[in-house]
């Protein structure tokens, strides 16, 4: 395969606002409420601090992504950067780890949506909602449904409006409950009896909400002046998204201290009913399900596209994964496979599933930081020389933080992630004839 730079470039039409919109829409701000109960329980009621610690680590990684996007102004990812900075074999393994996110992200989205619908309609079994999500999104993706940019704008406006209303109602409820003594404003951040290990365990789960801040790196070839706009966009997406997550979880903790919920997986549903009554619950649920449904369509479509690219480039069996439906012109088999994999959600909870996909994310994030360190030490800094702070200190902090969050994942997630990584290593040995030749390059 030819190197990425040798391929025809895409048309550059996206400015900084458009790239920001794409990244924020991919992150889906309402997801903070979808995982709140799980995060609050894992962090021992320090969810706001967990989100803040996750943001700090993500910010250092975002800076590294920005440096690599400036150095390699082509459609990129952790896979591309590792391949170019180190070698094709290591790049493949990072790509394999990243595939874990893509492959199982739809499952988590469907699981969260099903948990909240089950809370609203408890007489309907959760499995019915999960299967319904899978069947509907798979059908739409197979026939070639596309989400235009204008729908992203509408979706973002709806989500941000609901988040703002939720925050305001939480604050009003907390103020009324506090009475003359006032709100204990520092309480969500500082709890002397909670060990740091609990908060870090929560931060590992909180990172799930940030997934997608780096997705805009794949738009580099379509971005105007990418060497300037892409680094800015990646950092701003992480900071803006993180601010939303911290504020939302902070006010939730003020309104509902503690982790006593009827159902941890749908805790925000319970809080919404407490602070806003049935009317707000209906608005919140509609917005959350809309966001989850749209995210599910997008995530499953991304899986289908990635698997197709791997099949087309003969990394995976071409006859299956390189198949395009003759009528709909979509990777129908891959979309169906993603739907079948989503059925695993019937046997998992939100905490385990989010931790599982975070395994791949943390490995990818660590690799990006290490790539910057490698480039700094090599002296090949491109047209803008890196200083010791930006080229060594910041990425080192980012790498350590990402590794810390990796080992803070629950044991089941670590075991499943290690198995996935081992399978990738075995497959790499096979397709490269025991590393005697480079693996094929994925061109998306």
UniProtKB/TrEMBL annotation:
Entry membrane topology: Multi-pass membrane protein
PANTHER family to which the protein is assigned, alphabetical: AMINO ACID TRANSPORTER-RELATED, PUTRESCINE IMPORTER PUUP
Superkingdom, natural source: Bacteria
Biological classification of the source: Bacteria, Pseudomonadati, Pseudomonadota, Betaproteobacteria, Burkholderiales
Cellular localisation: Membrane
Gene3D superfamilies associated with the record: Amino acid/polyamine transporter I
Keyword Transmembrane helix: yes
Record field: transmembrane: 14-36, 48-69, 90-112, 124-144, 151-174, 194-213, 233-252, 279-310, 331-350, 356-377, 389-407, 413-431
Stated name of the protein: APC family permease
Positions in coiled-coil regions: none
Ranges where the Amino acid permease/ SLC12A domain occurs: 31-369
């Amino acid at each position: 395969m030819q190197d990425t730079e040798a391929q025809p470039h895409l048309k550059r039409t996206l400015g900084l606002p458009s790239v920001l919109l794409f990244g924020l829409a991919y992150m889906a701000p309402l997801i903070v409420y979808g995982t709140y109960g799980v995060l609050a329980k894992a962090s021992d009621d320090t969810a706001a601090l967990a989100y803040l610690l996750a943001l700090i680590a993500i910010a250092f990684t975002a800076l590294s992504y920005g440096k690599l996007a400036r150095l390699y102004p082509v459609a990129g990812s952790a896979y591309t950067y590792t391949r170019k900075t180190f070698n094709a074999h290591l790049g493949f393994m990072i790509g394999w780890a990243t595939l874990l996110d893509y492959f199982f992200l739809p499952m988590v989205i469907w699981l969260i949506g099903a948990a909240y619908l089950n809370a609203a309609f408890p007489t309907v079994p959760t499995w019915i909602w999960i299967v319904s999500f899978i069947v509907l999104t798979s059908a739409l993706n197979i026939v070639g449904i596309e989400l235009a940019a204008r729908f992203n704008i509408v979706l973002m406006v709806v989500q941000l409006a609901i988040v703002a209303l939720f925050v305001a109602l939480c604050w009003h409820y907390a103020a009324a409950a506090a009475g003359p003594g006032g709100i204990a404003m520092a309480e969500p951040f500082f709890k002397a009896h909670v060990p740091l290990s609990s908060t870090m365990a929560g931060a590992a789960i909180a990172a799930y909400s940030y997934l997608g801040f780096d997705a805009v790196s794949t738009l580099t070839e379509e971005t105007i002046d990418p060497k300037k706009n892409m680094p800015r966009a990646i950092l701003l997406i992480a900071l803006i998204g993180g601010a939303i997550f911290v504020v939302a979880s902070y006010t939730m903790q003020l309104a509902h201290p503690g982790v006593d919920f009827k159902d941890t997986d749908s805790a925000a549903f319970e809080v919404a009913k407490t602070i806003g009554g049935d009317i707000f619950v209906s608005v919140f649920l509609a917005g959350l399900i809309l966001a989850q449904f749209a995210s599910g369509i997008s995530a499953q479509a991304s899986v289908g596209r990635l698997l197709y690219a791997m099949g087309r480039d003969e990394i995976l069996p071409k006859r299956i994964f390189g198949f395009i439906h003759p009528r709909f012109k979509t990777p129908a088999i891959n979309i169906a496979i993603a739907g079948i994999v989503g059925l695993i959600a019937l046997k998992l909870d939100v905490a385990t599933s989010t931790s599982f996909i975070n395994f791949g994310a943390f490995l990818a994030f660590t690799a990006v930081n290490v790539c910057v360190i490698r480039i700094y030490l090599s002296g090949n800094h491109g047209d803008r020389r890196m200083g010791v702070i930006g080229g060594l200190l910041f990425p080192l902090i980012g790498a350590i933080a990402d590794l810390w969050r990796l080992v803070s994942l629950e044991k089941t997630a670590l075991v499943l992630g290690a198995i996935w990584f081992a399978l990738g290593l075995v497959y790499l040995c096979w397709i490269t004839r025991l590393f005697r030749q480079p693996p094929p390059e994925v061109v998306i």
